[in-house]
Amino acid sequence: MEAVRPALRPHEFNPAEIGALAHLYRGEVYRSTIWRTRLDNTTNWAVVTLAIALSVTFSTSEASPLPLILAGILCIVFLLFEARRYRYFNVWRARCRWLETNFYAPMLRGEGVKPSGGWPQVLARDYCEPRHHISLARAIGRRLRRNYIWILGIQTLAYYAKVAVHPVPMSNLAELVQRAAVGPIPGELVLLGGVLFTTGWITFALVTYYLDRTKHALRPGGVAMG
């Protein structure tokens, strides 16, 4: 029969423990900074891809708008890459924030450094049983709302502007449908796909925003890791 482990009684942190926590915080800040840089790199790839597509598409009036469609698909691939990286970044960010609110903030308020509220146990559990603090869907939604909704918005507007003004300004909607055709794919399907693509990602951003707000509302005091 397994012996019952006695509950550890909270005690004041001694100077050695405070120093160890300070070094731990520095390490977590460094790791979060590294992953933040990786997030910025992925966004830069999406911006550069869109810039190249815009340059190619609007270089001449006869140029095809197809590069803009491909740029939109590539931006979604970069979004998935960035969401995966964001889940890792969020681990280090959450630990830093946890130490700031439970360790440094009480110290600055003159309340002393006490393991009250069980926050050291929460942090220790996160080290012993590491896990992502956010789902992939919510991570995609966050990066979509912060960065990629604007990139995809510019890509969508540029595509419709291209088919509307080149090679000459269109005079009716039938001409727009004709210009939107890509090889054997009729323009109706291409435009319908564009509308579904845009509305789908807008809906996804709104749904994940609701999930984020619901998750935050369930946190005691509005503060928790992740």
Properties at a glance:
disordered N terminus; 6 helices; single chain; 226 residues; mainly alpha; elongated
Got a strand count?
0
Question: Beta-strand level of the residues, as a percent range?
Answer: under 5%
Using the alpha-carbon principal axes, give the shape.
Answer: elongated
Give the rounded overall mean pLDDT: 87
The ordered string of helix (H) and strand (E) elements is HHHHHH
Count up the domains.
Answer: 1
- Radius of gyration equals 25 Å
Low-pLDDT stretches = 1-8
Quickly give the structural class: mainly alpha
Helix content: over 70%
Q: Major sheet: size, sense and barrel closure?
A: none
Summed up, the helix count is 6
CA(first)-CA(last) distance: 37 Å
Short recap of the structure:
By secondary structure, this protein is mainly alpha-helical. The protein contains six helices and no strands. The chain has helices at residues 15-57, 66-108, 119-128, 136-165, 173-180, 187-217.
